[in-house]
Amino acid sequence: MRDGCTESEPGGEPDGVPRVTLPGVVDRHVHLGLVDRALLADGPVTEVHDLGWDPRDVAAWAADPPSGVRVRYAGPFHTAPGGYPTGRSWAPDAAVRHVATPREAAEAVADVVAAGGYAVKVALHAGMPLLPDDVLRALVGEAHAAGLPVLVHAEGDGQARRAIDGGADVLVHVPWTEALSSELIARAARMTWVSTFAIHDGPGRPPGLELALGNARRFVAAGGRLVYGTDMGNGPTPVGVNEREIELLGRVLTGEALRRAVLGPADAAPALTAPLPVPETASDLIAWLRTSRRLPTSPR
Ligand SMILES: [Zn+2]
Fold first, then answer.
1. CATH 3.40.640.10 is held by the domain 48-257
2. Which end of the chain, N or C, is less surrounded by CB atoms within 10 Å?
3. Cβ distance 119 to 74 under 8 Å?
4. How far does residue 82's CA lie from ligand 1's centre (Å)?
5. Distance 287 CA to ligand 1 centre (A)
């Protein structure tokens, strides 16, 4: 048994075919409000983390999720008045919480706790009004005091640095707008970064994707934890396994590290079974997931 996978011996199955079981896919960055979430039912994706929506809507979806899927949610984006994603056509008003002062930060975090959120989502987007340092510090301090991690969308010059040095726990996108210095990456190595490589994909070698892959490789080499997340709902993303995301993640990780990044934790109950060997590469893992079926005992 390795990292939550089990192999059965030939002849140990009713049809005589050896099978491998693994935990299901965990997508650590989705927006259920922007997809037909019913399509997730009983597929290979067994857990999704919604990182920005009206907390009342998403709490209702978590209470009555697609069959076989666990839904965790952060609730709204916390941002400066007028900050990202204010005014975006896809973002309902209640998906954006404007925070102007440290006192408002405390109130906003209390509201996340009351709504059942598992994390506090923060947006730092250099193209729009930005949270000042004292308000960012207050959001991080209040979240940590409440036992919640802080998940940051950092975009544009200097914003990844503000998130890293401001005590954030997670970057919800591997930084794609600038190459981070080695010193900064070393300070980030305590964090988790969510891949979302495929949203930068396109013909040729898109600069955003190349920057993200370069930052991710150095982050992993420094000891950082890189995990699979697709930003499902951002553009025409598949509702289910995003094979392109796994392919791109495979340019940074292989073997057990890749399985750990895409699948549930080693101590998670196995949810999937397939008559293929334990997948070692991205293409193995994609084929494995395509062939897999849900175990009858997997979480419902
Ligand atoms: Zn997102």
1. no
2. N
3. yes
4. 18
5. 27
Cα(93) to centroid(ligand 1), Å: 16
Question: 8-22, 182-196, 286-300: which has the highest mean pLDDT?
Answer: 182-196
CB atoms within 10 A of CB 120: 30
Distance between Cα 6 and ligand 1 center (Å) = 33
Q: Given this model, what pLDDT does residue 236 score?
A: 87
Q: What is the pLDDT of residues 246-262, one digit of tens each?
A: 999 999 999 999 999 99
User: What is the DSSP track for 68-117?
Assistant: T-EEEE--SEEE-TT-TTTT-TT--GGGEEE--SHHHHHHHHHHHHHTT-
Q: Which positions ≥6 away from 148 have C-beta within 8 Å?
A: 109, 112, 113, 117, 118, 119, 120
C-beta separation of 238 from 204 below 8 A: no
Q: How confident is the model at residue 267 (pLDDT cuts 50, 70, 90)?
A: confident
Q: How far does the centroid of ligand 1 lie from the alpha carbon of residue 155, in Å?
A: 12
* Complete DSSP assignment for 176-216: -SSPPPHHHHHHHTTSEEE---GGG--SS--HHHHHHHHHH
pLDDT tens digit sequence for 9-33: 443 455 667 899 999 999 999 999 9
- 14 vs 105, higher pLDDT: 105
**Mean pLDDT score of the chain:** 93
Provide the residues around ligand 1 (an ion) whose CB is within 5 A.
Answer: 231
3-state SS, residue 25: strand
Percent of the chain predicted with pLDDT > 70: 93
Output the CA 52–ligand 1 centroid distance in Å.
Answer: 7
- CB atoms under 10 Å from CB of 67, counted, come to 11
| Cα 278 to ligand 1 centre (Å) | 31
Q: How far is the CA of 80 from the centre of ligand 1 (A)?
A: 17
How far does the centroid of ligand 1 lie from the alpha carbon of residue 273, in Å?
30
